[in-house]
Amino acid sequence: MTRRYAKSTTSKYKNRKTAVNGLVFDSKREAKRYTELLLLMRGGLITGLKTQVKFELLPKQGAERAAHYIADFVYEQDGQIVVEDVKGVKTREYVLKRKMMLYFYGIKIKEI
C-alpha cells in the first residue's frame, strides 16, 4: 500500500507568498520592501525599478547548464545601479553567487 502525503503549503524557510499590485513575492518581507521602493520611486529618489532581474554568472558549457543569479530588485539611485536582495537566510549557494556578482559584474549586492 502506498501512502500519499499532502503537498506542504509552507516553504522551507516558512515564507508566505504575498501579492502586491499584481506581482507575487516570495515573502511578506520582500513585498514590504517593494512597497517601500515604490514610494521612493514616486518621490523621485530612485528610478527604473525592476523585479526579478536575471544575471548570467557562467555560460552554458557543453551539457552543463548556465548559472544565474536572480536579483529581487534592481534600480538606479544617484546615477548608480543598485541590486538588492531581501534575505532571511544566507545559504551557501547565495553567498557564492554574491561573490560571483562582485567578481564578474563589479556589483555589490545590497542585502535587506
If you had to describe this structure to a student in words, what would you say it looks like?
The chain is an alpha+beta fold and 112 residues long. It has one domain (18-111). It is 26% helix and 33% strand. It has two helices and six strands. 12% of the residues are buried.
Number of domains: 1
Helical run tally:
2
Q: Write down the overall mean pLDDT.
A: 90
Which radius of gyration do the C-alpha atoms yield?
17 Å
Break the fold down into its secondary structure elements and pairings.
Elements: E1 18-20, E2 23-25, H1 28-42, E3 47-58, E4 67-77, E5 80-85, H2 92-105, E6 110-111
Parallel strand pairs: 5-6
Antiparallel strand pairs: 1-2, 3-4, 4-5
List keywords for this structure.
112 residues, alpha+beta, four-stranded mixed beta sheet, two-stranded antiparallel ribbon, 2 helices, 6 strands, 26% helix, 33% strand
Concise account of the structure shown:
By secondary structure, the chain is of the alpha+beta class.
